[in-house]
Structure formats: C-alpha cells, structure tokens
Specification:
binds zinc ion; alpha+beta; 3 domains; globular
Length: 383
C-alpha cells in the first residue's frame, strides 16, 4: 500500500479527532480546520472523481459519516473497517477512535505537529506505560508486593473513573512503587459546578446535543438518564475524571474482567476446596485470570471485548505460560453482549484465529462460568 496514502489517512483521523474534540462536551466544530486536516482534505478534493467534493462544512461532515467503501478515493488501512465512516453522530466514529488510539497513539505514530490536546492523550498513555514498566521491574525482586500494587492501581482506575484527591491520598499513601502523583496524572480536574455522568458499564459519559454518549457505542449505547446504571456525579471540591486515553485503554476493557473475576471469586468462596484460587492479572497482567482447582489443574483466561471478530482473530495467540504462569488449559472469553450483536461471533473466531492451538478454548463469559461450575461439580463427585 502506498505510504503517502496512509499518511493522508492518518492526518484525516488525527485532524478529525482534534476538530471534533474527541473528548469534549457540547461543542459545534468551527473553522478553521487544523492544518493537517486541511491538507488531507485538499488531497481528497483532488482525488475524488466519482462524486464531487462537498462545498460546505455541513456537506463534508455528512460525507465523512458514510461508509468509506462507498466514496473514499484512496487506499484504506487494513486495520480500519471500510464499512464504517470517520464520523458518527457528529463525533469521531468508534472505528476511527479505535484506529486513532490503537494504531496511532499506542504505537507512537501521531504527527508531531498535532495539537496539545492530542499530544496530551499520547502523554497519558506514556505515563501509564512507564508506571507499568516500573512495576514489572519491581516484579523481578519483590514479586508479591509489585503484583499487589499493580492490582490496587488497575482496579482503582477501573472502578473509580471519577475520584477526588482525598481518595487518591487515602488509597496510595502506603504504596512503595506508585506515588499519589503518578495516579493523579492519569486524571484531569473537573470543572467547578458542572454536573457529570457515569455509566457502570462503560465509564464516564460525554454530553452531546442534549443526550449522553459513551466512549464506545458498540459496548454500551443506551444512556437515558433514568437507567439504573447511569449515574449523575455531582461536583465537589477536588473532583477528578479519568483521562480519555486511560478510560479507553485501562478502564473500559477492565470492566468485563472485573465482572468475571467477581463471579469466579463467589464460586471460590462457595467451594474453596474445589476452586482453590482465583488470581487476577498474574505476573502483572501476562493474562487476566488464573484459576487453581482441587485436582491441581490450572486454567489461564484472557477476556477480549472486540466489536469485530475478524479484528480479534488477528490478535489471538497462545497465552504466555512460563514459570508461575504455567497452565493446563487456556481460554479466551468474550463478553456476552458481543454474541448478542452477532450470533456467529465464536464460529468466526474459531475459523479465523489460525495462530491459535486447538487446546485454547473460545467461550462467552456465561458459557465459561458454566464450564467452571461443571468442573467444580465433577471434582466434588469424585470425592
Ligand atoms: Zn454505558
């Protein structure tokens, strides 16, 4: 694929992230465009031949909402689903956000002249990465403490998308490898007297045109204010909100991990003789959960929440299992809502995940819990 065409594509995504304000409260985009969005649009205007390039901003935004495969004149990176558009509901589409975050921010490939706000997202990612590396290093000589602090940090970020300085101080005053400041940098100040909203299923919400919008509509897309899982957060002194990049990268994917962990912990408490241990993020997140059973067998589990099973299939590889991370069976677990969206999800995954050994199982989270219950039953009958 032509490299200069990828650069145009990247400019478009980053330019739109900036222009539409990825993380913002109600704002209507205004001229001028960010510089490189303008450059990308100029190239588009030259290359579009089958349909004319729109003359107004309104026309351009409407065009950018359409599936790329119906109009985009240049090549499209394989990581971007061409059935999607760049924009959805006048904000960056989920597919474009995903591309922005996974392809550009994570790999450090943002254009260097991107705005301060965009660079900020890259910085958050770097700060978290640095913290993770510090804990991994500590893991080599002080494994138990390092893992304990890693779990404390990660759970805190998942369960407290809004927090206060006081609560940060309380939680991280005695940690050895993480400072209050390290965690504080992953949050931003909330505006005084502004009211905020949070969804228990997908984290902080954005107010957009009078309704509430989640960070990833395919995970959760109903945020009417009277729903039980949608909560209003009232401003108080020192209130802080998770930074966008950490919300996307740590908080959101962690929600189904914690949900499964809690369900398994309950089984462990009921039957500790047969399900002896449930360990979260063993080896500082080499995988998500490790189960030890009464017969000595060990299972390794990774939870994966992807909209598109074809994308996920590309990511699946054998789960790391050296040393303490050794396991007898391994599982990739997919949150149920993905199977409701697409009934053949697991079948596609099985077909497409060619890099996966036959011994790695693919399950929905409900089916996986049933499998654990069956294993416990089997062990208890053998007594
Ligand atoms: Zn939600």
């Amino acid at each position: 694929m032509d490299n200069s065409e990828i650069i145009i594509f990247d400019f478009l995504v980053v330019g739109l992230a900036e222009f539409l304000r990825l993380d913002t409260l109600d704002q209507i985009p205004k001229y001028p465009y960010p510089d490189f969005l303008q450059r990308a649009c100029n190239t588009l205007a030259l290359k579009m031949t089958s349909i004319p390039y729109p003359r107004t901003l309104e026309g351009l935004l409407t065009l950018l909402e359409k599936p790329l495969q119906t109009w985009y004149p240049l090549s499209i990176p394989k990581e971007f689903d061409s059935e999607c558009g760049f924009i959805y509901d006048r904000a960056l589409s989920e597919e474009a956000s995903q591309y922005f975050y996974e392809q550009l921010v994570k790999r450090g490939q943002l254009p260097e002249f991107a705005s301060v706000k965009i660079q900020q997202i890259a910085l958050e990612n770097f700060l978290f990465q640095r913290l993770l590396e510090r804990l991994q290093e500590a893991n080599e000589k002080d494994a138990e403490r390092a893992l304990q602090e890693y779990i404390l940090l990660r759970r805190f970020l998942i369960e407290n998308p809004y927090t206060t300085l006081e609560s940060l101080r309380k939680t991280f005053s005695k940690t050895r490898y993480i400072s209050i400041n390290d965690v504080g940098e992953l949050y931003e100040d909330c505006k005084e007297n502004e009211s905020y909203w949070c969804c228990d299923r997908c984290g902080p919400l954005i107010k957009k045109h009078g309704h509430l919008r989640g960070i990833k509509p395919s995970v959760c897309n109903d945020h009417r204010k009277n729903l039980s899982y949608v909560r209003r957060i009232y401003w108080k002194q020192g209130l802080r909100r998770l930074q966008f990049g950490i919300h996307w990268r740590v908080c959101l994917p962690g929600i189904p991990e914690i949900r499964l962990f809690e369900a398994l912990k309950k089984l462990h408490q009921q039957q500790p003789e047969y399900l002896c241990e449930v360990q979260l993020w063993p080896g500082i997140d080499r995988y998500d959960l490790q189960l030890r059973f009464g017969d000595g067998s060990v299972w390794a589990i990774d939870v994966k929440d992807y909209r598109n099973p074809y994308d996920l299939a590309l990511q699946l590889k054998p789960i790391f299992g050296e040393g303490d991370l050794h396991y007898d069976e391994s599982f990739y677990v997919i949150p149920n809502h993905r199977l409701h969206q697409r009934q053949d999800y697991i079948d596609i995954l099985r077909e497409e995940a060619t890099g996966l050994p036959k011994s790695t199982h693919l399950f929905s989270d409900t089916a996986f819990e049933e499998r654990v219950v069956a294993k416990i039953m089997h062990l208890s009958k053998g007594k």
